[in-house]
Amino acid sequence: MAIVGDSFKLKKLNSYNLIEETKFKSGNQIVIRKTNNTVNDDVENAIILEKKYYKGTQLLKKIYGFDSRITYSYVFNDIKDEICKCPNCGYTAKTEEFINGCSYCGTAYNINYSLQSLGGKEHYDRIIHSNKYRIITLIIDLLISFIVSFNYIYSTSRTFNIFDISKILVFTILIGLPLYYIFYLLDVYIVLYPIKVYKDKQNNKQRLFWEKMQQYGVIKDEFFNNFNYELNKYYFENDNNVIDYNIIDYLDFNYTDNKINVLVKIRIVKYVNNKIELEIIDRKFVFKQTEKVNELNAGVNIIKCYNCGSSINAEVGECDYCGTHINYLQKWYLEK
Fold first, then answer.
1. Residue 176 resides in a domain
2. How far apart are CA 256 and CA 239, in angstroms?
3. What tens digit of pLDDT does each residue of 130-170 get?
């Protein structure tokens, strides 16, 4: 069972008195969670449909467009008394202590990446919530309806006068109403098909990448656990204005010299001057592989510092030479 861990983000939201409301689609069910705990529906392997950010009761921003291949799970109330071990730092406690993330290291590990194809989620994001597609569909609809009406009236009328022009306009509206619905549905296939083909190619490329990584002993879930933990630290600790970030798409993976390069399309959510600002960029992150200790043995447990390469005791948690913080169960670190 994957458990939510958003403690980095929650601290930032709380510092600005902001509330995040997230709408998920779990199977055929729509569920909602709010960071102020007024709504905490159970979530298992769900995709995000939308997020809303509030200042008190005031809606500041609503955002859409989330990769439907990224799924999320949140702790269930009926297992809150079970014992859970953080896969990132090894902290062990009751599951209820992990509702807002590991209380020791703050890791987020409720996120999974699958290779599912795109479906209705893309229609939800790109058409239902996009005025652009609605306007384009309306223009095409009216244009075709006008051409059909004009040809029919012009070919059947003995004389072409102002009355015929008015009939063309009326017919255009009457024909356009049912046609608009048809064109609206066709957008799903016309607009999204090229996107689906492109994403399916990405899926296959990334599937082959992770299959190849098995020969190097790289575990996919382990990498994504460390990836999300490191990005949480990077964005929430280095920029006071950042209140959230979303991976819109994983564009490419590459492995060289015990490093994994990840190219992502990322949306950074900032709170500036009482407003929510969005920044969408393509960004490459480089993760270095280092030694890890699955269990601490009696005596000194020596590992390599991923930042400077010095040999240090895993129990210390910090490099004596460069001061870099190290979790002894973490294998992948964001390159400085």
1. yes
2. 30
3. 667 777 778 888 888 899 888 888 888 777 778 888 888 88
Count of the separate structural domains present in the chain: 2
Query: Which of 213, 235, 251 finishes a domain?
Result: 213
Question: Alpha-carbon distance 69 to 198, whole Å?
Answer: 14
CB 225 within 8 A of CB 73: no
**DSSP readout, 106-174?**
-----EEE--PPP-HHHHIIIIIT-HHHHHHHHHHHHHHHHHHHHHHHHHH-SS--HHHHHHHHHHHHH
Pick from 62-76, 117-131, 270-284, 310-324 the range whose average pLDDT is largest.
270-284
> Half-sphere exposure of residue 334, counting CA atoms within 13 Å on the CB side?
17
Is residue 218 a part of any domain in this protein? no
Q: What is the pTM of this model?
A: 0.71
Residue 82 in 3-state DSSP? coil
pLDDT in tens, 39-57: 878 777 788 889 999 998 9
Q: Please write the tens of the pLDDT for every residue from 168-201.
A: 888 888 888 888 878 777 766 666 677 777 777 8
Structure tokens given for 6 = 């958003």
Q: In sequence order, what are the beta bridge partners of 7?
A: none
Among candidate residues 213, 233, 266, the one where a domain is terminated = 213
Range of the domain at 209: 122-213
Which one, of 293, 305, 277, lies nearest residue 330 by Cα? Answer: 293
Which residues does 160 contact at the CB level (< 8 Å), separation at least 6? 153, 154
Which pair of structure tokens corresponds to residue 277?
């600002």
The conformation of residue 77, written as its DSSP 8-state character, comes to G
Q: What CA–CA distance (Å, rounded) separates 269 from 292?
A: 33
Between CA 140 and CA 133 the distance in angstroms is 11
